[in-house]
TrEMBL record:
Its EC number is 3.4.19.12. Residues 382-401 have a biased composition (Low complexity). Belongs to the peptidase C19 family. It is found in: Cytoplasm; Nucleus. This is ubiquitinyl hydrolase 1. It is an enzyme of class 3 (hydrolase).
Length: 758
């Protein structure tokens, strides 16, 4: 059995907080049930008594009014006249604390109405001359779905949200990011999962206002943390679900809504995806290229929308003729001429510099340009680009072709020719996985000689239904020409290559981290099919008779049949045969096969330990908390973690508890047998020293939460005052006798423990 009481702690000089006290055994997540407190005997023994549950609707009232558990119990059991007396007493108490403006008879009547006690609300309104507003069900009936402030029952909440979460992604829709921990807390509170109903309606699992602060890089930053992962860091909900959750739970003051658009990826294999990370561009106005303003854009935005934002940022009039350039190398810029092209199709990448150039009054342009001839799938390099300098001795290299136009200009600089192949690849934004695969293949001599010599051009197979219309082979060949020309700069941009790959393999079209081997496998398969010399693949029976034959003959026949459908430079350079032998355990029959392969997995030694950081909270409130770095077995248990902490702190491992703290509450209490792998690197793990051993039958360890009353004015078609409690600070733990504790002993223990924060 768990026990629950609440007591209000006041230090008018320093703090006013509420402690939520729960008896907790190791391995349990903190949970709360309401203890009945006798109003006539404040020192009654609270622990060990039978507990009385207060209906959820009165909890809702309490959250609105900031009431205590005992007072709520009085309202439930003593309605009417006693309730009126209580309300008057409560108002006097709140007024005495200097909050007379927060709680009025109008707010009391409104709160009572919202929880469905319309009869009591009518009595109070009549007696105290309060004009009732249409709230709750009354406003909902006339105002529709969002017409009232009445929060639906938990069953209704979860069914409404469940239906909305099944919505398919559609291009242009808006979805919101929610902290995955808040979402898990809400699911526990509502009993969302059919197999997890044990905490449904428990006030200790009330998720509180929506909170997205943990998703941002800093408290003042508008940028998301890097490398956030769905269902590990955040959950996605459609706009309609977000709006409902905001009405029901509100949004914390430290949070900002994270709205993202659904965009469509891929040219031939289209699929929709929520664009979690936006493109950040450095905008500048020519000629002040060093003065930039960073703005965010969706990949679904068009070049026209980009130009509109540039004009707005630099106060350029609509009648002024302008053109937009993007920089992809130190001194090389490229024109974005197709205004209807999306930023994704234009191949733009994160933190790229975008330049707005305005035409002069005489109709000329500040920068000289040249037209680069290009084909739809090729990059083009020229030695004759025009620079902004009038010096005839200045040398420069040209750009890759533009996604929507062939114009470019390059800054004046000198560059000595480099050794062929000695060329880096620009990181377009989390594309190191792609660059490593390209550099690997670029230094595979037989394949590179085949491409740089131009032999691939006569082998391109554009009619192969399994290929990519020759586009992957063409863009890869063009990239190798640039890398091995010896005339390039020290780096090249594989932007056009990435754009083409993204059309046929949408998983590589974004700027998320990907697996390098997966990209390498796709590229080799794509090159093989684009360069397959077999224009019309015949049907081939791949079965080979093996009985009584030499292995060499079996292998040669298998390879011959394979070549009837597959002949390319990739087969010649990268593919071979792998012999597999099977023996029947019953009849000892032997079967040998020779299968083609292109990759062999190399087992690497796995690191058996991991580094973890934990914060130790000592039982002595005068001792500061200390962060420790631990080396623990990867496949170890919480018991191993405790042993390591014990060695560094000399705290006995049976006098500590390991918890995950989130949003100022114990999100999870770990059992000794749980695997350490359940703890993620981003989790905030605390180890609390206990005063007595875990499992001591004479003592109970009680978690303490700190909370404050938040009062907000809300307007959802009508205005009302929303009151709820926010948890703050670090939770802590006290110990009290299991069978002899009184209200006073618990109260004093709470005060003593809170002295750390006061």
């Amino acid at each position: 059995m768990r026990y629950y009481i609440r007591t209000r702690v006041h230090d008018r000089q320093k703090m006013a907080a509420t402690a939520d006290v729960v008896a907790m055994d190791e391995g349990e997540t903190a949970s709360q049930e309401t203890a009945q407190e006798s109003p006539a005997s404040p020192s009654v023994e609270l622990l060990g008594t039978e507990l009385a549950r207060i209906p959820k609707k009165w909890y809702e009232f309490g959250q609105k009014m900031g009431l205590e558990t005992t007072q709520l119990h009085l309202i439930e059991t003593e309605k009417g006249k006693e309730a009126e007396y209580y309300f008057r007493e409560t108002l006097e108490l709140l007024a005495g604390e200097g909050r007379e403006g927060d709680v009025t008879w109008e707010s009391v009547v409104r709160a009572v109405t919202d929880i469905g006690e319309t009869e009591l609300a009518e009595q109070l309104a009549t007696k105290y001359g309060v004009e009732r507003e249409e709230t709750g069900e009354e406003a909902g009936e006339e105002g529709g779905e969002d017409g009232g402030s009445k929060v639906p029952e938990l069953k209704v909440q979860k069914e409404e949200i469940r239906a909305l979460l099944t919505k398919k992604l559609e291009k242009g829709d808006t979805w919101y990011l929610i902290d995955v921990r808040w979402m898990k807390q809400w699911k526990k509170y509502t009993g969302y999962e059919t197999w997890d109903q044990s905490y449904s309606g428990e006030q200790s699992y009330f998720p509180g206002p929506l909170d997205t602060s943990n998703l941002f890089a800093g408290t003042e930053s508008h940028a998301l943390k890097e490398h956030l992962m769905e269902e590990l860091d955040y959950s996605l909900v459609p706009e309609s679900a977000w709006n409902k959750l905001v009405v029901w739970y509100g949004v914390s003051d430290t949070s900002r809504p994270v709205a993202r658009t659904v965009v469509e990826y891929g040219l031939y294999m289209k699929h929709c995806k929520v664009e979690v990370y936006l493109l950040n561009f450095k905008l500048s106005l020519h000629p002040k290229l060093s003065e930039t303003v960073t703005k965010s854009f969706s990949r679904a935005d068009t070049v026209a929308e980009l130009e509109k934002e540039l004009r707005h940022t630099f106060n350029v009039e609509e009648k002024t003729v302008c053109r937009v350039w993007h920089r992809y190398m130190s001194h090389t810029y490229e024109l974005l001429s197709d205004s209807n092209q999306t930023l994704q199709d234009a191949g733009l990448y994160n933190m790229q510099t975008i330049v707005l150039e305005c035409q002069k009054e005489d109709g000329s342009w500040p920068r000289a340009t040249t037209q680069a001839s290009y084909q739809a799938t090729h990059s083009t390099r020229s030695q004759d680009s025009i620079t902004g300098s009038t010096s005839s001795s200045a040398q420069s290299t040209s750009s890759y072709r533009s996604g929507g136009g062939g114009s470019y200009w390059s800054g004046s600089y000198s560059q000595q020719p480099t050794h062929p192949g000695l060329c880096g690849l620009s990181n377009l934004g989390n594309t190191c996985f792609m660059n490593s695969a390209l550099q690997c293949l670029s230094n595979t001599e037989p394949l590179t000689e085949y491409f740089t010599g131009g032999a691939y051009k006569k082998h391109i197979n554009k009619k192969n239904p399994l290929g990519m219309q020759g586009q992957v082979a063409e863009t890869y060949g063009t990239l190798l020409d640039d890398m091995w020309s010896g005339n390039s700069c020290s780096t090249c941009s594989p932007r056009q290559f990435k754009t083409v790959v993204g059309r046929f393999a949408p998983q590589f079209s974004g700027y998320q981290q990907q697996d390098s081997h997966e990209l390498l496998a796709f590229l080799l398969d794509g090159l093989h099919e684009d360069l397959n010399l077999v224009l019309k693949k015949p049907y081939v029976d791949m079965s080979v008779k093996t009985e009584g034959r030499e292995e060499k003959d079996i292998a040669e026949e298998s390879w011959y049949k394979y070549l009837q459908r597959n002949q390319s430079v990739v087969v010649k350079v990268f593919q071979g045969q792998l012999k597999s032998t099977l023996v029947c355990p019953q009849c000892s029959m032997l079967s040998k096969t020779f299968d083609p392969f292109m990759y062999l997995s190399l087992p690497l030694p796995v690191k058996k330990t991991r580094k973890m950081e934990v914060i130790v909270v000592y039982a002595d409130p005068n001792k500061p908390m200390v962060k420790y770095s631990l080396i623990v077995p990867k496949r170890g248990t919480i018991s191993h973690l405790k042993t390591e902490v014990s060695e560094q702190t000399e705290i006995p491992d049976d006098m500590m508890v390991v918890v995950d703290v989130y949003n100022s509450r114990f999100h999870r209490v770990y059992d000794n047998k749980e695997n350490i792998s359940h703890i993620l690197d981003r989790d905030d793990i605390y180890v609390y020293e206990l005063s007595h051993q875990v499992g001591d039958k004479d003592w109970v360890h009680v978690p303490i939460y700190h909370r404050e009353l938040v009062v907000k004015k809300v307007n959802y078609g009508y205005s009302y005052t929303q009151r709820y409690h926010n948890l703050f600070g670090l939770p802590t733990i006290i110990r009290v006798p299991r069978n002899t504790s009184t209200y006073d002993t618990v109260y004093q223990a709470v005060l003593a423990r809170c002295s750390r924060e006061v």
